[in-house]
Design goal:
heterodimer, A: 696 residues, alpha+beta, Aldehyde Oxidoreductase, domain 3, Aldehyde Oxidoreductase, domain 4, 7-stranded mixed sheet, 28% helix, B: alpha+beta, Ubiquitin-like (UB roll), 6 helices, 5 strands, 38% helix
C-alpha cells in the first residue's frame, strides 16, 4: 500500500482554477436583497436618539427591537450584542441593518440616518480586567529568593489582521419558519447554535451551509456568528433572501484580529548560571467584548516556557476590556505572542549571563517525560535535537550567526524553537465539543464522510478522503465529502485549533475501520464514532494543572535577513523550517501549510503594522496594512520529520498553526543578530530599528 | 448612461451603462462572470484581475468607459485555453492552490507575464506576480508553478 504522505492532486483545485468555485459573494438567489450595517461612529457613547428617514417601498431597518431572543451572540459569555441598544463600546459596533434591493439606495438611506450620541471618554488602557488566570509549578518564590541575579524584560506584540483575501460574507433565505444561512465560515455549528439562540427557535428551524471559503485563519471562527445572527433576524422580519457581504475596509475595521499583548518576564539565575525560576505576566487587549479572549489567554499562558522545561514557574495573565474592536481567533491563538516573548527572553538571558545562547537553550530544551508548564507530561518522543541539527545544517546557521554578529548592521540569522498543543486547550474537546463523525455507505458502495469540518484552503477535503480511501482500500473518487450542511452532518466540532486532522481525522479513521469490518458489497451502512479522551489525560481547569493538550507538534524555524544600514529596511534572504507533525497525511499539503504559515508568521514579526487612533483602526485596507507579496518571498526550504502519534490517523498531529507560531521570533532574532541590539517588540519596523540604534 | 462597445470573452458586446461603473461589477453582476473576485476594491490585491488587450488590469479600478474598443478576457474564457491547461497542471503539481480566492487572478497574472516574457527568471516571476496578494501559500509554490508552466508550455507563449 502507498505511503499516505505521498501527495495527490487536491480534489477542489480544478474548480478553483477555472473560476467555477462558488464563494458566498458568487451565490445569487432570485429576489435577493442586500444588507448593509449601520455602525457606531464613536469608541464609547450613549445613543441619545436615532432619527430615521422615511423608507422607500421594499426597504427595511432591522435592529435590536426585531430580535426574538436574548440580544447577544452565543460564544462563551453573554457580552457581545447582536445590535447595540442604547450604548456603543467601540468604533464600528453594529447598530442596525438597512436592507433592500439596490445597494446605492441603501447607501443613500444610511447617509440620511442621524444618530445623536452622548460621547463618553473611551478606555484604551489595560485597567479593566475581565478575566485573570494564575498558575504555578514548583517553587518560584524560593528560586527568586535565592537567585544570584534576576533578569527581567518587557515584550510587546501588535495587532495582526488575518487578511483572508475573501472578505466576510453570508447569504440567507427563509422557508416558512426555517432559516438557511450559507456563509464563509469555519464552524457551521457555532453559527447554527448562535442563530438558534437569537431566534429562540427549534433545532430544525436553522440550517447552516458552508460556501467555498476564501481563507479564514481564525477570522471566520467566531465572527461569522455575529453576521449570521443579524441576517437571521432580518430574514425572519423580511422573509426574502438577503446577502450581507463586507467590503475590505469594513472587514478590516470591525472584524476580530490577533490580540495585542504586553508580556513581562522575569528569570531567577542561580549560582551555576542556571535558570532556577521564571515568571511571566501577560496582558492581552480583548477590545470591547470578551469573545474567545479567555481561551486565547490560557493558550498563551500555557506556552510560557515555550519549547523548554523550567522547573519553577509562576504565570499570570489578564484579559483587558477596552473600547476597541473585539479581538479573537487567529492561527496560533495566543501562542505567537508568548513564543515571541519566550524566545527573545532566552536570548536576552544568555547575553546577560554571558552564556552561548544556543548552549543555554539546548540545556533547557524539553525532553520526553519532562513535566509540561502545567505539570502534565510530554508522553511522546520529542525529536527536537535532530530537528535543530537538521535546520542548522540546511541553513549553515552556526557559522552565519557568528559571522553576522560583529560586522555592523548588515546580515542576520535567527532561529526559533517552538511547540504547539494540538486540539482544544484543557478539557474543551472532552467536555464541550464531544465530536461525532459518521460515514455512510450507499448501495453503489460510495462512502460519504459526514463531518462539520470546513475546507478553507488547508486541504481537508483531500486529506479526509485520502484517510478513508486508504483504510477502505477504495479509489479516492469513491469517497464523497461535500461541504458541511448542518441538515446532514453531525457536530464534529469547529474547524479550529489544529484539531481537524488529529481529532476529527482520527475519528474518521476509526469509523472507516469500523466500516471495513462491517462492509458488505451493495448494502447501505452507517457507522459513527464519538470522541473519547484517553483516560490518562487529566486536566484541572481552575488550577491549570495537568495535560493541557493530548499531544504536541514541534518545529524549528530559521530566518536570514539583510538590514539596510541606511534605511533599516529589512529584506528576507532565506527561510528554513523543520517540523514534527507526527505524520503528513499529504506531504504537499503540509508543505503548503508550511510556506503559508511561516510567511504569515514572519510578516507578523517585521512587516504587518496595525494601530488604532482613538479606537478607530488606522490600517484598514491593503494599501495601509502591508502583507508580504511575491517580492518579499525569499527561497524557502522545509523538512518534515516522521514521529507518528499513536492516536492520530496514520500518526498525524496538528499542523496548521504550528507553521505560523515560530515565524515572528525567528525573524526578530535574525534582526537582533544583524543590529546587535535587544529586540523587544514586534513588528520590527525600520522606525523601531532606528530607535534601537539610537537608544537601545 | 453611455453605449459602450467592447469585446468580452471573444464576443462583440454593447452595453448601456454609466461609463464610471466599475468593470468588476459589470462582469460579475451583468454577465455573471463571478470567477472575477473582489478582494480589496482598490486595485491592490489582484483578485479581480482580467486581461485587457492581453495585459493584466485590476477590474475594480477600471471604469467601464475605458474598455470601449478593447478586448476583455476573464478567467471563464481563459480557462478554455491550452495555456490555462498547462498552468493548471503546473499549479496542481506544485500545490499552488489553497483557498483559491486569489487563484483566478494569479492565473491571469501568470498569463500576462508569460505573454510578455515566455521564459522568466525567478526574480521576473516575483515581479510579475507582485500585484497579486495571496495569504495562504506563501507564494513559494506559485512561483515554482509558473516556472514549471513556462518550461512545459514552451512555444505556447
Amino acid at each position: 500500500m502507498k505511503d499516505i504522505s505521498s501527495s495527490v492532486n487536491k480534489v477542489d483545485s480544478v474548480i478553483k482554477m477555472s473560476g467555477e468555485a462558488k464563494y458566498v459573494s458568487d451565490i445569487k438567489i432570485d429576489g435577493m436583497l442586500y444588507a448593509k450595517t449601520v455602525r457606531s461612529e464613536h469608541a464609547k457613547a450613549v445613543i441619545k436618539n436615532i432619527s430615521l428617514p422615511e423608507l422607500p417601498e421594499g426597504y427595511y431597518f432591522v435592529d435590536h427591537t426585531d430580535i426574538p431572543g436574548k440580544n447577544f451572540v452565543k460564544i462563551i459569555f453573554e457580552d457581545m450584542p447582536v445590535f447595540a441598544v442604547d450604548e456603543v463600546n467601540y468604533y464600528g459596533e453594529p447598530i442596525m441593518l438597512v436592507v433592500g434591493e439596490d445597494k446605492n439606495v441603501i447607501t443613500d438611506i444610511i447617509s440620511k440616518i442621524e444618530i445623536t450620541y452622548d460621547v463618553k471618554t473611551p478606555l484604551f488602557e489595560n485597567t479593566n480586567s475581565a478575566i485573570d488566570y494564575h498558575f504555578k509549578k514548583g517553587d518560584s518564590k524560593a528560586a527568586f529568593k535565592n537567585a544570584k541575579k534576576i533578569i527581567s524584560h518587557d515584550y510587546h506584540t501588535g495587532y495582526q489582521e488575518q487578511l483572508y483575501i475573501e472578505p466576510q460574507g453570508m447569504i440567507g433565505y427563509i422557508e416558512g419558519k426555517k432559516v438557511t444561512l450559507i456563509g464563509s465560515i469555519q464552524c457551521p455549528y457555532y453559527v447554527k447554535n448562535a442563530v438558534i439562540s437569537i431566534l429562540e427557535s427549534e433545532d430544525n428551524e436553522v440550517r447552516v451551509q458552508q460556501a467555498v471559503v476564501g481563507g479564514a485563519f481564525g477570522g471566520k471562527e467566531e465572527f461569522p456568528s455575529l453576521m449570521a445572527c443579524q441576517l437571521a433576524v432580518a430574514l425572519r422580519k423580511i422573509k426574502k433572501p438577503i446577502k450581507l457581504i463586507y467590503e475590505r475596509e469594513e472587514d478590516m475595521e470591525v472584524t476580530t484580529k490577533r490580540h495585542p499583548s504586553w508580556i513581562h518576564m522575569e528569570a531567577a539565575i542561580d549560582e551555576n548560571n542556571g535558570i532556577s525560576g521564571l515568571t511571566a505576566e501577560v496582558a492581552i487587549d480583548a477590545g470591547a467584548n470578551i469573545g474567545l479572549s479567555g481561551v486565547v489567554l490560557s493558550r498563551a499562558l500555557i506556552a510560557s516556557t515555550g519549547a523548554y522545561t523550567i522547573d519553577n514557574i509562576e504565570v499570570r495573565g489578564d484579559v483587558f476590556l477596552t473600547n476597541t474592536v473585539p479581538n479573537g481567533a487567529f492561527r496560533g491563538f495566543g501562542a505567537p505572542q508568548m513564543l515571541f516573548a519566550v524566545e527573545m527572553f532566552m536570548q536576552h538571558i544568555a547575553k546577560e549571563i554571558g552564556e552561548d545562547p544556543l548552549e543555554l537553550r539546548l540545556k533547557y530544551l524539553a525532553k520526553q517525560g519532562d513535566p509540561t508548564s502545567t505539570q502534565g507530561e510530554y508522553r511522546d518522543p520529542i525529536i527536537m535535537n535532530d530537528m535543530i541539527q537538521k535546520a542548522m545544517e540546511m541553513s549553515n546557521y552556526k557559522s552565519k550567526v557568528k559571522e553576522y554578529e560583529n560586522q555592523g548592521v548588515s546580515k542576520g540569522i535567527g532561529m526559533s524553537w517552538f511547540l504547539h498543543g494540538c486540539g482544544f486547550t484543557g478539557s474543551g474537546e472532552a467536555n464541550h465539543i464531544k465530536a461525532l463523525v459518521k460515514l455512510e455507505k450507499d448501495e453503489l458502495d460510495q462512502v460519504t464522510i459526514l463531518i462539520a469540518a470546513v475546507d478553507m484552503g488547508q486541504g481537508v477535503q483531500t486529506t479526509m478522503k485520502k484517510i478513508v480511501s486508504q483504510i477502505l482500500d477504495i479509489p479516492l473518487d469513491q469517497v464523497i465529502y461535500n461541504k458541511p450542511d448542518t441538515d446532514f452532518v453531525p457536530d464534529s466540532g469547529p474547524t479550529v485549533a489544529s484539531r481537524t486532522i488529529m481529532v476529527v481525522g482520527g475519528l474518521v479513521a476509526r469509523a472507516a475501520r469500523q466500516l471495513k469490518d462491517k462492509w458488505v458489497d451493495g448494502e447501505k451502512l452507517l457507522v459513527s464514532e464519538r470522541y473519547k479522551q484517553p483516560d490518562y489525560i487529566k486536566w484541572d481547569e481552575d488550577k491549570f494543572i495537568g495535560d493541557a493538550y493530548p499531544a504536541y507538534s514541534w518545529g524549528v524555524n530559521i530566518v536570514e535577513v539583510e538590514v539596510c544600514p541606511v534605511t533599516y529596511q529589512v529584506t528576507l534572504k532565506g527561510i528554513w523550517s523543520v517540523y514534527d507533525v507526527g505524520k503528513a497525511i499529504d506531504e504537499r499539503i503540509i508543505m503548503g501549510q508550511a510556506d503559508g504559515g511561516i510567511l504569515q508568521g514572519v510578516g507578523y514579526g517585521y512587516l504587518e503594522v496595525m494601530n488604532h487612533e482613538n479606537g478607530r483602526i488606522k490600517h484598514k485596507n491593503v494599501t495601509d496594512y502591508i502583507i508580504p507579496t511575491t517580492g518579499d518571498t525569499p527561497p524557502m526550504e522545509t523538512f518534515l520529520m516522521d514521529n507518528p502519534y499513536p492516536l492520530g490517523p496514520y500518526g498525524a498531529k496538528g499542523a496548521g498553526e504550528l507553521t505560523l507560531v515560530g515565524g515572528a521570533p525567528a525573524v526578530a532574532l535574525a534582526i537582533e543578530n544583524a543590529i546587535n541590539k535587544k529586540v523587544k517588540k514586534i513588528p520590527v519596523t525600520p522606525e523601531y530599528i532606528m530607535e534601537l540604534m539610537k537608544n537601545g | 448612461m453611455a453605449s459602450i462597445k467592447f469585446n468580452l470573452n471573444n464576443k462583440e458586446t454593447v452595453i448601456e451603462e454609466s461609463p464610471t461603473a466599475r468593470l468588476l461589477d459589470i462582469l460579475r453582476d451583468k454577465y455573471n462572470f463571478v470567477g472575477v473576485k473582489e478582494g480589496c476594491g482598490e486595485g491592490e490585491c489582484g483578485a479581480c484581475a482580467v486581461l485587457m488587450d492581453g495585459k493584466i488590469v485590476n477590474s475594480c479600478i477600471v471604469p467601464l468607459g475605458t474598455v470601449e474598443g478593447k478586448s476583455i478576457i476573464t478567467i471563464e474564457e481563459f480557462s478554455k485555453s491550452k495555456r490555462h491547461k498547462i498552468l493548471q497542471e503546473s499549479f496542481e503539481e506544485e500545490g499552488a492552490v489553497q483557498c483559491g480566492f486569489c487563484t483566478p487572478g494569479m492565473l491571469i497574472a501568470s498569463e500576462s507575464l508569460l505573454n510578455q516574457n515566455p521564459h522568466p527568471t525567478d526574480e521576473e516571476i516575483k515581479i510579475g506576480l507582485s500585484g497579486n496578494l495571496c495569504r495562504c501559500t506563501g507564494y513559494n509554490m506559485i512561483i515554482k508553478a509558473v516556472k514549471s508552466a513556462a518550461k512545459k508550455g514552451d512555444g505556447l507563449w
